Amino acid sequence: MSAQPARAYLGIGEVLARLQGEFPDISVSKIRFLESEGLIEPARSPSGYRRFDASDVERLRYILTAQRDEYLPLRVIKERLPQAGAGRPPGGRASTSGDSSLSRRELLAEAGIDDTQLAELETFGLVRRVGRVYGPNALQVACAAAVLGRYGVQARHLRAVRAAVEREISFIEQVVAPTLRQRNPEARGQAALAAREIAALTLRLHGALMEAALAEAGFPGYGLPEPPGPADRNAAAAGGPAARVPAAEGATARGRDDQSDRPGAMRRGRGFGGVSA
């Protein structure tokens, strides 16, 4: 029996299977969403099924890599796509001159949370909107909150983190206050530089103290993971530490659902420590 000729295209399920090892959070619904946003344009069969050729798959890989590694909003990725070579990974983060802001829809899609969860983050002062858009830090916060949600941590439990940051900012303001009181025109720039240097040292100190406290609590090891982002959500979905730690009472392990648009959504129900929401 003669072998059938290889097809020049893939179906959406075959694309999913090909990319899922590299991007565990990819789903059928996400591919459809990217198509609806005009980032990919697969051909259609006479019966209406999507047909992806090699260039479509590489374009999709480029988009997913830019989301995962550079946290770029879809609008920026779309602008960069015409200049992206086939199969070439995104380069270093380029300055977008303010284009790194995200709409509410973009933030929800890229962080993998829903309207209710974003509203909770806003309520507790963890995410703040500037006009009608969100800054790039909002994506970092939302992604971290989504990962923490796998442990049963809810937005209200993160108020202590926000309060600690506010106390540290108050401390930094006190330290640079004498510089700000100077009359020379360079004073504000010098104070801003000093404030950021102090913040960086404070973060380093915080990390060292956290390491020591973890060891004293009986959690040995060395080094803390990088702050959670989309890549960390992918690792958790692939069976990383966040996926292995049991959630709080009432939370169930997340099953793979290729039809979901919210791959990193926080769990609802009883929260951290079994406290009801």
Word description of this protein:
A hairpin with a 2-residue loop joins strand 3 and strand 4. The strands form two sheets. This protein has a two-stranded antiparallel sheet with strand order 1-2. Strands 3-4 form a two-stranded antiparallel ribbon. It contains eleven helices and four strands. It has helices at residues 12-19, 28-36, 54-70, 74-80, 104-111, 115-123, 136-149, 159-180, 187-216, 230-237, 241-244, and strands at residues 43-44, 50-51, 129-130, 133-134. The chain has 277 residues and is mainly α. The chain is elongated, with a radius of gyration of 22 Å. Residues 1-6, 84-98 and 231-277 have low confidence and may be disordered. It has a domain at 8-98: Multidrug-efflux Transporter Regulator, Chain: A, Domain 2 (Orthogonal Bundle).
Please tag this protein with its features.
3% strand; Multidrug-efflux Transporter Regulator, Chain: A, Domain 2; two-stranded antiparallel sheet; mainly alpha; single chain; 277 residues; 4 strands
Largest sheet: 2 strands, antiparallel
What's the CATH architecture name of the domain at 8-98? Orthogonal Bundle
The computed structural class is: mainly alpha
Strand content: under 5%
Q: Quote the average pLDDT.
A: 75
Q: Based on the structure, what is the oligomeric state of the protein chains?
A: single chain
What is the helix content?
40-55%
Choose one word for the global shape.
elongated
Write the element-wise H/E pattern from the N-terminal end onward: HHEEHHHHEEHHHHH
Spatial extent as radius of gyration: 22 Å
Low-confidence stretches: 1-6, 84-98, 231-277
- Note the gap between the termini: 63 Å
> How many β-strand runs?
4
* Tally of individual helices: 11
Classified by CATH, the class of the domain at 8-98 is: Mainly Alpha
In order across it, which strands form the biggest sheet? 1-2
In CATH terms, what is the fold-level topology of the domain at 8-98?
Answer: Multidrug-efflux Transporter Regulator, Chain: A, Domain 2
